[in-house]
Amino acid sequence: MVTINDVSRRAGVSRATVSRVIADNGYVSDEKRKLIEAAIAELGYRPNTMARGLRSNRSDIFGAVVVDVSSPFYAQMVGGIQKGAKLAGKSVLSASGHALKDDEAHAILELLDRACDGLILYLENTLAPDVVEMIRKSGVPVVTIGGNECPAATAKIHIDNFGGARDAMRHVLAQGHRAIAYLSGGLMYRDTHERLRGMAAALGEHGLSLDDIFIEHGDFDERFGVEGTKRLLKSRRPLTAIFAGDDDVAAGALYALKQAGKRVPEDISLVGFDDNFHARHLTPGLTTVRQPVDEIGRLAARLLSQIVVGEPLESNEVTVPTQLVIRESVGRPARQKSNRETIELAR
Amino acid sequence: MVTINDVSRRAGVSRATVSRVIADNGYVSDEKRKLIEAAIAELGYRPNTMARGLRSNRSDIFGAVVVDVSSPFYAQMVGGIQKGAKLAGKSVLSASGHALKDDEAHAILELLDRACDGLILYLENTLAPDVVEMIRKSGVPVVTIGGNECPAATAKIHIDNFGGARDAMRHVLAQGHRAIAYLSGGLMYRDTHERLRGMAAALGEHGLSLDDIFIEHGDFDERFGVEGTKRLLKSRRPLTAIFAGDDDVAAGALYALKQAGKRVPEDISLVGFDDNFHARHLTPGLTTVRQPVDEIGRLAARLLSQIVVGEPLESNEVTVPTQLVIRESVGRPARQKSNRETIELAR
DNA sequence: GTGAAAGCGCTAACAT
DNA sequence: ATGTTAGCGCTTTCAC
């Protein structure tokens, strides 16, 4: 193994000077720098990250915890984090929290043990005080995504769930829908509350409130989409539009609607949330609210880099906008259409 | 910071004994072990991974290079790797090779620098000799997935592209299709060749060869699916079935077919490859060949763990089967159907 | 600007 | 079964 000693000997300088060159700090004369760089190249020297880390207590690794690295949504987020980290010369160690308090805590401790230079956390549970304390003691900066409680966060990225849900509801209301159901995520999630607020805001603009739509709570998965929709259908509730908690729920809902012989959007309109990977592959293309996951990941890594190098942040709390993506799953309500048809026939 | 010294003092033993307890090797009396474990718990001691790594030249990290960590297909694979690694007490540092020789080499060197205990590689290019040399010199074991050339591989996982393509073609032929097009991936990929061989095998069973189907080569993406299909349609070639290079290509093809007013599978049948995330969300559900990515990832991590601990492998070369997933995108060829209809009408 | 020296926290060979 | 000892490769004072 080629060590810094070999390089220093070859270049005829001390190890300290070599160290200054590879870490790019401190003063080194151009002459010696050239010598050292030549020696490094000739010997094919690669600094030992462990030794550097032990000595300097840095690792050039950012740790990231998301719900599930293998799901498309979070994979894209991690991808964004990696891109952002790369710009700062950092690698990313990612772990899944599985929306479970224990797994999340484990993942964080693990990353802390690895001497991460910073942590990016997308959690679904409030951190236990002892974990918060460990983060604090370690002095590792933290950027949270999604606003789930981590008092140790140095910076927070919020996603505009409020605005997204409001815009989506506005769109649906503007099409004339009033008989609306919402297959919502659970009330334990902050996102759920924000989205409900957003919907309420849009409803309010039409003199309506959440009481005027039908809300059912369940998981953010396809099964809930299928089951919830079946229940809605069975209830014979007059319904012209369904909001799904996310695109997975929407996929399930779409499936159940088709099974029941309902056409989307002719018979019933459907809205998702996330603009997940499959949203545009559904038939009809799903109208949904895009969360710019890749950008969010990059932003998180950028903020963390800034914090690490001590660069002042413009703000330590930023809200990332969401965007309504209009495809083909929302139309005008069936009843209204039949009215028009009636009128047309009457002519 | 709590160090091993603090623990040894508190427990009244030497550092070496503490080390034996935390590394779980060597003999330690129950009595002292209890003492040490108590001291560790009381002090909240966490071993310093950098120091351990520097000294022992292990990191408990597996490095993984795949084409793109943020794409659903590879994200699932990385997820599988993480699950498998966790069983062996390892974390996973993942990086994207982007199917580019340079990026792949960079990623590997980076992971080598991080003193990974092992490498899992899904590459698209043959490794440059100097990179292979670096891997060799480092002594880090390598498991490759997909069979792309890495002479330094300790174990190789192949995916049965041959069997998958053969089974898919058999299925299509069995439905009566003979006018078939294949929107294939590029010939620079080993997968492409294997799949062509598989198709040829199935065709041979019917006295046909690859010359009897129409093959066009392009990228593994949706755009090629759209463009390729448009060209096929414009060529007015009589066609009853399209094979897509993968599910992305299939999604594009499906889109183009719908645009052209063709019904799938009534007018034309469609087959994908991968059983990617969106395959079952397409309408009709895509008949495709499943690559068990999660299992492959887990297997890779398991093999690597075995190699690391020196456990003998059953075989250092394993082929993972693929599986034909039959959904709704393949039917009997249109012409044949009309024949039947004619017959039925004639009765 | 550069070098000498002192460890960072841990493990492993050796001794007992 | 346990302790002693000698570093792993690097960075960072502190002199000069």
Task: Write a compact overview of the structure shown.
2 copies of one chain form a homodimer. Chain A has 347 residues and is α/β, with parallel strands linked by helices.
Question: Can you describe what's shown?
Answer:
Two copies of one chain form a homodimer. Helices cover 47% and strands 15% of the residues of chain A. The first copy, chain A, has 347 residues and is α/β, with parallel strands linked by helices. In chain A, helix 1 crosses helix 2, helix 1 crosses helix 3 and helix 5 packs parallel to helix 12. The longest helix of chain A has 17 residues. The radius of gyration of chain A is 26 Å and the shape is elongated. The first copy, chain A, starts with a helix and ends with a helix. At the A-B interface, helix 4, helix 5, strand 2 and helix 6 of A face helix 4, helix 5, strand 2 and helix 6 of B. Chain A binds a DNA duplex (16 and 16 nucleotides) through helix 2 and helix 4.
- For the largest sheet of chain A, list the strands in their spatial order: 2-1-3-4-5-11
Q: What characterizes the major β-sheet of chain A?
A: 6 strands, parallel
Order of helices and strands of chain A: HHHHEHEHEHEEHEHEHEHEEHEEH
Give the proportion of residues in helices of chain A: 40-55%
Strand percent estimate of chain A: 5-15%
Count the helices of chain A. How many? 13
Largest interface: A-B, 42 and 41 residues
Let me know the number of strands of chain A: 12
- The multimeric state of the shown protein is homodimer
Q: Kindly state the mean pLDDT of chain A as a whole number?
A: 92
